[in-house]
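User: I'm curious what two different proteins look like when written out as structure tokens. Can you demonstrate?

Assistant: Sure. I'll show them one after the other, since each token string lines up with its own sequence. Here's the first protein:
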Amino acid sequence: MNVATLLLGCNIGNCESTFVETLQMFEKNCGRLLNKSSLYKTAPWGYAEQNDFLNQVVILDTELTPVELLSKTCEIEFELGRLRAIANGPRTIDIDILFYNDLEVITNDLIIPHPRLHLRKFTLIPLNEIIPDYTHPALNKTIAQLLDECEDNLNVYKKGN
């Protein structure tokens, strides 16, 4: 089996409900859920003229290869109404593969570890909640170290706080 770490993002519709449905689809199509972070409310990154996002990191045990996992996550996004109209724009669901085991994967359609995860607090904060001591395979720094060094100044709040 393989361990895949994914980031969920949503800012259209009932995001909490969408995340529940996404996790059910992961269990059915991708593998077993091992862990998940709290939900985090996050200011939009890149394209600011939109609603805040809800984000969550999840960890799956999967038999899928990285490319197969990408294909399944794209299918799930499509089934849940994801449209790709504006780069970094509003979306019903966004699923990013952050890590896959300790592999570095580079294809035309997929880069693992995610190439910008270390620049974004909305990714690092939920990662730090559940795997602070995990070492980024390419940067050789722990998630806690990457968060400490991150210069992103966007607000990220644990939902409910």
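Here's a second, unrelated protein for contrast:
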Amino acid sequence: MEFSHTPHPRIQDRKKESAPKVNEQAVGFNGRLALLITKAVGSMWCAYLFAAFDLLSLPAAISEGIQAIVSWVAQTFLQLVLLSIIMVGQNLQSQAADKRSEQTYADAEAILHECLELQRHLKAQDDTLAALVAKVEERGH
């Protein structure tokens, strides 16, 4: 009995694909804009910009009270506006993670298929070896 390996189709499909990128998940102008803002806001440069913004208002805030300015920036602008934009960007990143998860599942299916093929191959070898041992024992007696 000769063994003939049949590779899983996913193995060939996977070679044609690259890992999904978050940018590929951004659909339309709004998606790209949200992703761009998410990347910008989620950077140290943006943190430095916000710190500079707060420092720029320090002289006026000292005379008028800095608590009102900081409170406005923190409670109105950052929490209400940027939080929702960041959430949109995170949703796009989540879609890429979902696609990677689906690919990992398909890869696991392919590995399972290959393991089953390997078991079939080993069984065929066992059968061949058993037949050879039987012939050798038959001739030896």
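A detail about the second structure: Residues 26-140 form one domain.
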